[in-house]
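Hello Y.,

Per our agreement to keep a running log of every chain we model this quarter, I'm adding this entry. I've kept the format consistent with earlier entries: sequence first, then predicted structure.
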Amino acid sequence: MEVEVKLRIKDLENFDKLKTLLKTFHFKTLNQENHFFDTPDNDLSVNRSVLRIRIVNNDEIGTKAIVCLKSKPVLIDGVSRVEEDEEEIDGAVALSYVKDSSLLNTLDSRILKRCRDEFGVVNEKGIVGLGGFKNVRNVYTWRGLKLEVDETQYEFGNCYEIECESEDPESVKMELEGFLNENGIDYKYSEMTKFAVFRSGKMPS
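Predicted structure for the entry above:
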């Protein structure tokens, strides 16, 4: 179970102000490509699950790829809880799956086995690409926390968000809100996952 605090920053002006305040705590920047997949009948989505391949580029680590299955997301008052299973795969191989989603049927992967066993979706019906979005993630080590400050680039616009994974989300949320309020940064609780925003095709209100 992944538990995260998710706060949406109002706009680019507030986002840039936040990054300036956190500048001395910067740890790394990750350029992420997120690609999503389902059956033609959306069997995974119907079962509140998401299959994603994330390709991550960083000057220090090079390129890596992670296949991920997320299930049963709950996002209430800026706290996200979701069942998550991840597996690293070769970056070049991942790109081939993005170009031709039918190749996912041949992937020897624990994640794809779960899709077959739990949802019966891959071999029987095939799998199709849904598209995706890019995300620039700046990671900061701040007050003993790892903050992930995201600029998510959809075809219909950009969203800005600060996330922090924690086993004590209410305390983290209180600390983050105090910091944002003290520095006049306009924010609200995130109400939709990035995938939900992508599927809606429009910016969240």
